[in-house]
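FW: tagging you since you asked about this chain on Friday. Here's the raw sequence from the shared folder, copied in full. Didn't touch anything.
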Amino acid sequence: MKKTFFLFLCLAFAGSSSAQRVDQQVMGESPREVYQIDKGWKFYRGHLDQPKPKGHHWVYKSVKAGAGRGPAAFQYDDGGWRTVDLPHDYVVEGTFTQNPELVSHGFLDRPEGWYRRKFRLPAEARGKTIWLYFDGVFGQSQVWVNGQELRKSDNGYIGFRVDISDVAHYGDRPNVISVKCDPGEAQGWWYEGGGIYRHVWLTIADPVHVAPYGVYISADKKKGGKWQASIETAIENESESDARVKVVNTILDKKGKPVAVTTRDVDAKSGETTKIQQFLAIPENRVEPWDLNSPNLYGIRTELFVDGKKVDSHGDHFGFRTLEFNPQKGFFLNGKPVKFKGVCMHQDHAGVGVALPDAIHSFRITRLKQFGVNAYRCSHNPPAPEILDACDRQGMLVLNENRFFNSGEDYLRQLDEQVRRDRNHPSVMMWSTFNEEDWQGDERGVKLVKRMKRIIDAGDHFARRPVTGAMSAGFSKDGAFAPLDVLGINYSLGVHDHVHKNLYPNKLIYSSESVSHSASRGEWQDKKHVYNNYDNHWVGWGDSLRKTWKFVDMREWDAGTFVWTGFDYRGEPTPVNAWPVISSYFGIVDTCGFAKDSFYLMQALWTDKPMAHVFPHWNLGKDMIGKKVKVGTYTNGDEAELFLNGKTLGKKPVDKYMQLYWDDVEYQPGELKMVAYKKGRKHAEAKVVTTGEPVALGLEVKFDNWQRKSARTGVSDALPVTVFAVDSKGRRVPTASNKVSFAVKGGKVLGVGNGDPLCHEPDIATERSLYNGLASAIVAPGDEEGVLEITASSPGLKPYSLKLSIRKGNGFIQYPTIDGSIVLTDWRISEITDKPQNPNRPIADGDMNTWQPIAVGSGPQPQWDQKQGWATYRALFDMPNGNNWELVLEGVKGNAQVFVNGQEVAKKDNPASGTVKAPVKAPAGSKVTVSVQMKSSEAKAGLTGTAKLVQKK
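HL: got it, structure written out here
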């Protein structure tokens, strides 16, 4: 019996799929505080020692809580590190190196890197549940907070939570995050970058709160048209007692008006996570479905009340739509047939590597839609949350792919995290478990898929989106196809019919990866490592864009294809796979987003809006005059007529799939025009002209019908600015190669690019050569409203300035940074005695009893409550680099004498709380001992404030 895999689905997290990215408008007033913590990180590129302890005392100390060493230590001197903002990819900052070990990753070295960030928490946060969330750190990473290692991650593509509630400092005493990342171990065979390349979030919540990814919503459309929304809420109770919690879930329309509300009381056990389910019936006339052309989104507000008091509120977006996977008729969205016009995508972009600002993620989805793309394959890893956000908002289906084909415990946990993170996006239509695996055709592959599928189905238990995989061989009933719901076939068009008719007639089939054609933007002749744009170069296992689309489009049961790839990407420089090629040639657009001629081919194949395109450019040079040139004409019309300098070269029918090429056009400078017709009427036209030499530059933030005229603060905004050269008549020169410099007021250049796979100019720069007439600068606005002015200049050309307004954005609050002082934390206190002590007496090795570790900076030490008199405080630190360091002891309550390396440097003769300052002079890197002898007759005494080193200006 033939089966139809039919499913209804809706989503949350359109604002972002990260648990930290709640929609503040939907959330409403909430005790929960959510901050971005992207600004003001200290960064060091390269290896740093974490010195091994020497001596029994230091070995003893090294295995205790908070004993991070080297850059992981709380009071490490990072004053010489540079300051960066996130997202940040430090690998793209490197120099291209002819090293065969680096070929797959774009010939850029991938050293270790370290990040540190200091921040303070208010005293009111004490008793709250506080966590960090890292959306993505590449590659192997470790996280310490206040010297305590809290998390390791070996997956650079999925985020992770770091609960800091137990180690946090409050009040004046700062907190320090230390992150080590080592991208040297490959997780993929493409450019992967390195660093904290996605956002970091700080959440301060009531102990009774909605868990991360704790709101899951799905919708069935019942007979008669009514929708049933199924909502699951996970409540974490980190308080010391059980709680009776009222859970209120409200669905909001796009205007913020309630559509439906459901309330339920639940007992939340202390120390446990409690899940409840609620169901809402919604009339069909109250719902506007999410669709490719009308991506309607709704809000889901979740509120928790304890004893009548609101303790948490969480807000996300979601959308209603139905999916059907019919083995005989293909894929249906909201009951209408849709053929996948898909592309595979890696994440990197010219100028910024993998650290894309949110606005560039959104721009890339827009650019794909411009040539007809309706489906996005995340190749081959979980995407950045902002990619799914953009797909939700713009109407793009997503094939959400796992990175590791592995059923080990850690890998299944990562898969579960991915599913729970992304399950509510309406754009996500399928889960993919693997891509081209060696075990795909045998029983090992079957077992892996079954185990991974159980994790996916459990996390997506309401919707049960189909689980798929991308097979490249082993097509049989014994391989990984067997447990899959939907079958993805990479390339191998010849096996589609066999799989459909003979192996799995009851499962939907689609082309999960196809084509792999090569083209260099703007090129019309083949040269060494340069490929023309006539859709006639592809890898041995691939095929042309035209033949591939014809194949899948002519089979009703074939759901469509995902072309490899939408954008060019760094690394994997197939078909050359050698120096000097640093990026792929596969994209429909280049790494900047500039269109190759295949962009217009896909418009002809995939879009209905009248279009015409003729190529190559018409600056072919004097040596080509009188010689034959191959001319391509693309259109979604049915006829094309070609004119050269006003004279017709004939009218010919256009094959809807194979299009039309003119092999014998004699080159003459001037104008080459194409006129497309449909049903006998003029449909569209396009032309290319012979230009003069470049005389001036131009700038724009415009790609076809997409344009930006302003920038916004506080929302991870950035503009893809195009620079080009024009001749004396203002016509763009398609062959210009001038080097252009960029200057910016009111913002900064994040990076530059030109889409040339052979260009070794640095991306992190303020200048770039034009490649076939174009280059790009990624420009970010500053933090203040005003004017963003971008100026492009080049020797011998007239410069050009572009001004845009900077407006205030409605983004998340950036958690404030603090000064660069070094806080001293490794303090110990002696026994309190009735008589003065020798403040410089040695401490016996391993003595943790008469000299006790204490916290300094969080109020009086409790020892003074038991006895008053005389005590000695002792701290040891490494002298930082630089001059003019001063020891500052805040909140010194009691009489005090301060000694540095045995020498008295300051004295305080009154018991009232006050600040003591003293200069510190010692060679950089040397060990420095601070001793403070205190006398107090009061209980609330001691070093109550922060102890730190401050570099005087």
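FW: DSSP finds ten helices and 58 strands in the chain.
HL: agreed, and The first helix runs from residue 24 to 27.
FW: great, closing this out.
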